Amino acid sequence: MLRRCSISLTCALWLIGAQAKLTERRTKWDEIATSACSHELATYPWKSSEGRHDVLCKYDIALGSWVLCSTEYYITEANGRDKNMVFQWIESLCAAKWDSDNPVNLDAVLSAAESNVGMMPNKGQKIDHIVRANEDNIKLWVIALFGPVDNLDKSTLFAVLINGYWLAVLLTAAISKFFRALFRSTQPRKSGIAWIKGHITLPPLVQRHAAHFGRSVFVGLIPTRLETLVIAGYICLHVTVMCVEYHFDPLSLVSSLKIQHLLFTADRAGILAFAHLPFLVLSGGRNQLITKITGIKLKTMIGFHKWAGRFMFVDVLIHALGYYLHSLEEHYLKYAWDSPVWQSGRAGVCACGILIFFSFYFFRRRFYELFLFLHYLMAVIFIYECWRHCGNVGWMEWIYVSIGIWVLEFVLRARRIIKFGFPRATIELSGDEFIKITVPKLNSEWQSKPGQYVYLYFLRATIFWQSHPFSILHTTSDPSSQNLTFVITAKNGVTKKLRDMVKDAGTETIRIALEGPFGSSLPLWDYDSVLLLGGGTGIASMISASMLSLQVDKTRKPIWKVVWSLKSKDLLTLYGREISELIEKGIDVQVFLTSQTKEVSFTEIEMTEQSKTNDKLLLNDYRIPVAGYKRPDINSMIEEFMRLDGSLLVIGCGPPAFVDSIRSLTCEKIIENPLKVVDYKEDYQTW
Ligand SMILES: Cc1cc2nc3c(=O)[nH]c(=O)nc-3n(C[C@H](O)[C@H](O)[C@H](O)COP(=O)(O)OP(=O)(O)OC[C@H]3O[C@@H](n4cnc5c(N)ncnc54)[C@H](O)[C@@H]3O)c2cc1C
């Protein structure tokens, strides 16, 4: 089915492509030679009454000189092979001026010119025989005519280079993923690798990675140093290709230097902007395939998406401003303003501006669904306006590829949703804040691994179009279990609506659609010890991994410890069954309740008919030992695991500040113990 879809997509794009212009080489030496000769020869004093614009076509002596000049330059200087290319240009320029009943044979004109060429007459005399144009002047004209078209070709080349850069990033990630999997647990580690991990790949550029940074409107996420390097590489490349390889005409034969600067930078920026589209569409998608092949997390791809998008917007602005100023300089603004190209250009700039404005975090955080809707809508409008803008100009491949990627992504997503089916899920409220969703698996082939997540759609009239990511909780050690479970914290959007829906009845069933699984699984079995540090609802993947570990052969099973820091007893109640099963089956689980002291919790528990004996909370039927009523000492826990022999994997998931502190502590340990294999995986994503 997929193959059929892509074939029909290719056919559709091919048919559309037949209407619109693709990229073509703009530096055509036959055209440059012909134009340079015509510019030069048009200034000569021909013995003819024809005006400057007609003389070369209509006065046979001037025509012969032009044909001679153009073919000689084309063949000797530009290494052209086929003089008919030159003839075609001359014919296209002169056809309207020639008598259609007496076609001109340019081959014969050239032969006659070659055998009758004479000396240039003295100054002041009219020219009445074939002459050779001044070679030095021709070269100057060539420089003037070459610059603009060469700029278009170089811009196309640089556009390919920018896409090549992103492709190289993806390829490098894929190769590195392959080798990491091969040598993950090879002991001892080469100290250079520890240095790279501890100083470059893991730590954030500054301060923090998961928690947002900044104030008021300018709030964002700080990339890791490795992500920063990739982004910096892209920015350097982008700035470089915007600044180099311009061939200006210093004599300003065709246009002034100011106009050349405006035009060249505007053209360069416009082509680069266009070329960003495929990568933007690719990196803005859900990208399970990319994650699978390269190991790059969705949040990292979205980070790249944001930076590429920002620079594309800058390109769009430079292009628009450049042409606006050019039109003022050349006095054609009032003629161009209402033309389709300018109308579509203006609409494209507006769409892109709106898209960028509503992507700011202050808006996205409060109105995520509106942000998403506007983002898609403006992206569609922008691509459509680009199509209108350049349909007759060229470079349409970038548009086709972008649409192709987008359509393919939707097809793959729809396929995943249909494959899972549309079961009725049970929604239960736990306390005021938490919702447990149990989804029966209709398709037994559907499998997921710890650390993966899905997008859930709740098929109710007011919310069915929204899809939200939630981590999968594996509630049993049986991977073929027929249910999927999700534990959700009620926020202010769809999750609040769900809570309100079940508030009265306590439980409700609702038809859902599910897209996934997304994300990569955790490489748990490649290490000698695994320390899982979870905070709040971030425990889901830790429980899933621990459940799976119950299945693993004892000889292969790493030393295993789960540490869970949480505020709310409601949450503990929700996971009570799984936690007590893990403890019963010998998994070391340490629970830290941070929001209450021992005494307070005792009173509260009594009041809620839960009892606490010997530091064990009795929640419903489950007895959960509590390791402490304080925050866990993450540092000493990691240190304890560092003292164990063999390789260590630290996994963090929970509130942003919590995972940030685990990340930085693990980095410290990696640097301090360069020979020990220590890795860090974060099962937390935000964008
Ligand atoms: C990979 C991943 C796994 C997650 N797993 C869980 C989980 O197991 N349990 C849990 O309670 N939460 C989880 N979350 C968070 C959860 O997706 C959001 O809390 C939920 O989407 C909020 O929905 P809302 O409409 O009520 O949000 P709102 O109240 O409108 O917004 C709350 C916050 O959630 C963000 N948000 C809203 N919609 C989305 C969306 N579609 N995609 C990404 N972010 C969004 C907003 O930017 C805002 O910061 C996970 C998030 C990610 C990225």
Automatic annotation (TrEMBL):
Lineage of source species: Eukaryota, Fungi, Dikarya, Ascomycota, Saccharomycotina
Enzyme Commission number, as recorded: 1.16.1.9
Highest taxon listed in the record's lineage: Eukaryota
GO biological process: copper ion import; intracellular iron ion homeostasis; iron ion transport
Keywords: Cell membrane, Electron transport, FAD, Flavoprotein, Glycoprotein, Heme, Ion transport, Iron, Membrane, Metal-binding, NADP, Oxidoreductase, Signal, Transmembrane, Transmembrane helix, Transport
Residues of the signal peptide: 1-20
Molecular function GO terms recorded: ferric-chelate reductase (NADPH) activity
Chief localization: membrane
Name under which the protein is recorded: ferric-chelate reductase (NADPH)
Species annotation: Lachancea thermotolerans (strain ATCC 56472 / CBS 6340 / NRRL Y-8284) (Yeast)
GO CC terms, sorted: plasma membrane
InterPro entries recorded: FAD-bd_8, FAD-bd_FR_type, Fe3_Rdtase_TM_dom, Fe_red_NAD-bd_6, Ferric/Cupric_Reductase, FNR_nucleotide-bd, Riboflavin_synthase-like_b-brl
Membrane spanning stretches: 157-179, 307-325, 345-363, 370-387, 393-412
UniProt membrane topology term: Multi-pass membrane protein
Cofactor: FAD
Listed SUPFAM superfamilies: Ferredoxin reductase-like, C-terminal NADP-linked domain, Riboflavin synthase domain-like
Catalytically driven reaction(s): 2 a Fe(II)-siderophore + NADP(+) + H(+) = 2 a Fe(III)-siderophore + NADPH
